[in-house]
Amino acid sequence: MKLYKTVCKEKIARRRKLGEGNVVLRFFLELIRVIFIMLICGVVLGALVNSVYKAFDIQVGEASGGWFPGIAILLLLFVWYRQRLQFTGFYKSKANQKLSKTAARVLIFISIILFILPALINV
User: Where do the TM regions start and end (predicted)?
Assistant: First the structure.
């Protein structure tokens, strides 16, 4: 009976060690997921914003605030990830929390201003 308890304890200890390794693996999988989300959605949103700017004949270059829309896209993707996507990924943690409504609204408002800013600069 003692041998059985020892074997069971060893199995539980091994499972815990495997679980810790899985946390690291899940973290890296989530990191890769975030990078792909940022790349794919960033490119799509960037193309959409550029087409809107071209439709209104707004020339956006590096010297005329062309990086403002890029920052706005990153802010929107950050809010989207923190509000929705972090709860559907590989890495589960008790520390995952949504942004407060005020913080999310402020970041979205700042991104809207950053989208409008190149049009105002080029006037």
Answer: 23-45, 65-81, 102-121
Domain that includes residue 89, residue range:
2-121
Nearest 5°: the CA angle 12, 14, 24 is 120
pTM of the model: 0.77
* Tally of structural domains, the chain: 1
Q: How do residues 45-77 score in pLDDT, each as one tens digit?
A: 999 998 998 998 888 776 567 789 999 999 999
Q: Within 13 A of 9's CA, how many CA atoms are on the CB side?
A: 6
CA 104 to CA 58: how far, in whole Å? 28
What DSSP string describes 45-103?
HHHHHHHHHHHTT----TTTTTTHHHHHHHHHHHHHHHHTGGGSSS---TT--PPPHHH
Here the tokens at position 7 are 């074997």
Instruction: Give 72's Cβ-side CA count (13 Å radius).
Output: 21
